[in-house]
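Hi R.,

Here are the chain sequences for the assembly we discussed:
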Amino acid sequence: MAAERLVVIGGDAAGMSAASQARRMRGPDDLEIVVFERGHFTSYSACGIPYWVGGEVAERDKLIARTPEEHRERDIDLRMRTEALEIDTDGRRVRARDLESGEESWTAYDKLVVATGARPVRPELPGIDAPGVHGVQTLDDGQALLDTLTSTSGRRAVIVGAGYIGVEMAEALLRRDYEVTVVTRGEEPMSTLDPDMGRLVHEAMDAMGITTVTGAEVTKILTGEDGRVRAVATADAEYPADVVVLGIGVEPRTELARAAGLPLGEHGGLLTDRAMRVRGHQDIWAGGDCVEVLDLVSGRERHIALGTHANKHGQIIGSGVGGGYATFPGVVGTAVSKVCDLEIARTGLREHEAREAGLQFVTATIESTNSAGYYPGAAVMAVKMLAERRTGRLLGVQIVGREGAAKRVDIAAVALTAGMTVEQVVTLDLGYAPPFSPVWDPVLVAARKAVSAVRAAGS
Amino acid sequence: MAAERLVVIGGDAAGMSAASQARRMRGPDDLEIVVFERGHFTSYSACGIPYWVGGEVAERDKLIARTPEEHRERDIDLRMRTEALEIDTDGRRVRARDLESGEESWTAYDKLVVATGARPVRPELPGIDAPGVHGVQTLDDGQALLDTLTSTSGRRAVIVGAGYIGVEMAEALLRRDYEVTVVTRGEEPMSTLDPDMGRLVHEAMDAMGITTVTGAEVTKILTGEDGRVRAVATADAEYPADVVVLGIGVEPRTELARAAGLPLGEHGGLLTDRAMRVRGHQDIWAGGDCVEVLDLVSGRERHIALGTHANKHGQIIGSGVGGGYATFPGVVGTAVSKVCDLEIARTGLREHEAREAGLQFVTATIESTNSAGYYPGAAVMAVKMLAERRTGRLLGVQIVGREGAAKRVDIAAVALTAGMTVEQVVTLDLGYAPPFSPVWDPVLVAARKAVSAVRAAGS
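And here is the predicted structure of the full complex:
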């Protein structure tokens, strides 16, 4: 019998990374590891679902980084289709139900990891549960959507929501020869950008043949006589639909944590310390889509569901459980996405986020190209930059362009982390050769304009 | 008559950027601007020459950002084909010769900018001046090479040197259906990388059908009865050649500066202060390929001929001349390049550079992919990272891979500038989505391995 038992609730990115890292650091004689996973899969890429639905990734299993069997070979007691129902922090135990047999039992823990993930926001609309209406959060969701696509002959798809899941699904369904309509409450698509930059995405989507309806709240899902979806209704109009995809966003899945009295933040996510320990609980860690993270630019907690953070959290938690030391300093809010050949990126704060954080700022927006203007295939790239008034500190960057545009946001992500001013950004020694950049990289051009804006704004 | 006169020696990137920025800040009544340029062109992209020779850029004029006429329209007295012969710092005047008429005259200055650029290293080898042997430093060089290519029927090209100019010219001549042989003294091609990373370039060049001869010093250029080049000889072998391109590197063109007693560094480049003023001379600035720059990682001066630096220098000098304030903090040694679809990048220090700087270090090399492994077209990318022993400070990164590999080096360039440790790099919030990156960006994977290497090395 092992000296200690680790229980992990949730077997995707954060949970399995934590379990794997803990196992690397402590052998099975020293640490028993039990993982409860409700679903059928472990360690898969939810971010890859749009590319599987769109047909670029041929099969579901390619999205699975490690199967339950592979985890078990590493001496992890992985209990699939097992749902955790209750955490008893005083008794240090978790009650769970085997979803196949219906049996329930308590499992004691010395150390606990909560990695319960997020759930898609599913507004309570009439018809929302009708056949043909799909979320795309899990592999099971993706399979259900694909089943609908293959069993339905109609070619009209409506996507509710125009965040990154929405636009990626628009691309996926366009690839499958659907007429795609994206309906969003927002002023422009890609609400992760300021509306002036979202406008560029809107125009590009128009050119791709995607219909975008903005400022439209969905009020109802209309069904036909067969009970299947037939249209999406807003206050003003009806949009015929053979299939509907919900891409409205996600929220932390923290009912278990809440019932156990674990501390939650204003966005409903678990609150942790720098080592990803749940605040006030020395033996409980939490990570991935169920936690809130510190935004280093605004100084406030945010909820960001993203596999790259979940994997880092898992690694850090596993180190902590294993007796090592690692911390997660926070995020700057970087996100990249694409619709067909249009690349979209952001990091740091948008205008309204900066205002909410009490920051005064100037903005600078420029157009440049991804390569030297004379190089074949040079394509326009727009960069918007926010800089703090007076100090000139970089606050955020948004980019919309073609090949090579999105990952340029990493330059700003590192500069934000380092607390650089836009004047410091101007002189950064970035890679230059004609196939890769104009002689002034577009990010530097934006920074030059931001420097002028900061000066012009005075003190 | 203007209050002051600015004289600029050299009308390419640094010189014309300085002149243009000074003009923006001071009108013609306040500042007269005279520029001497030896050649036929101003403000052109020398870095673009390989793509013009290779046929991707259709015509020479596309490489010219601004013509002499355009500069003159902005009230810059640009004297083409005029060579500066002497700087008299006591008398504050420059002697120059009109290369067409042969006339010489002195021009007085209040402020002087030295932007004399670099010249290609041209070893004193027998036959080096034979027809068919070409440098590729200036537009005139590029035109001469193109004339040779169109007038010669043979299809064998030998490139001497395998730095970035060498490999870019290898691509250009491959595109023109030449049999290409690259001859280098180095252990591997791309001497801007450590040999273990250069090896990856070598293998990729083999696969492209480029022959690379390493460890080979060229001893002679052999000519035929017609006086034209017929082969390149090393100590061991002869390589038949219908055309030879010299890509051995460049050195600062600073005879004028030396004769005038201006301070030169150990690489022969001018030494300036942070505002790009020549040290000890309040009214003389220098920038571009004729200066040495501070390497922020090693703390030593380097000579780096690169358009992106030259443009920044020009901008800063123009601000200074115009009465503004801007500084150039230094470089971290970032360079990106490509051979066909192989992308090559570096920033910071290589192993021998770190040793020369007195730095002890560990290395970590990893292989990952440019996008999620399951995403179509995912291609292998190798990242090598150097970190300082004990402190874990990032010292350098080298990357060899396919699309999306090279500009990832910017992440490291910013982190180097900020003085980050590899542990700080691991938690950077970089853009992640399956088309753009695995869930752990390759740079982060390298940093994780470097963290382990730093720990393993102990104190």
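Chain B has twelve helices and 25 strands. Chain B touches chain A through 63 residues (CB under 8 Å).

Let me know if anything looks off.

Best,
T.
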